[in-house]
Amino acid sequence: MGFHRRHISNNQILQMYITEGMQKVYDWYTKGVDTLVTEVGLASDVGDLIGEENDWNQMSKLIFDELSIYQKGFIYDVIKTRL
Known about the structure:
This protein is mainly alpha-helical. It has one domain (about 5-80). The chain is built from four helices and two strands; from the N terminus they run E-H-H-E-H-H. It has helices spanning about 10-20, 20-30, 40-50, 55-80, and strands at about 5-10, 35-40. Helix 1 (about 10-20) crosses helix 2 (about 20-30) and helix 3 packs antiparallel against helix 4. The model has no long low-confidence stretch (mean pLDDT about 85).
């Protein structure tokens, strides 16, 4: 038997949510792991919600809000480069 430590980054969570959905994100935090090492920010905040009341919806909202901020920044950068 071994000890399973999982490192989770903010970008990893965003990419996983986009490509595989909320179930995969939830499972990534809760299945097949003994301890988590999370990046400060989104990954850490999502991890803090595990086990809280209504954790699934809170996690999904947090990730979706972060994606919205990221997309606005990306769109701003694209517009800025075209000016």
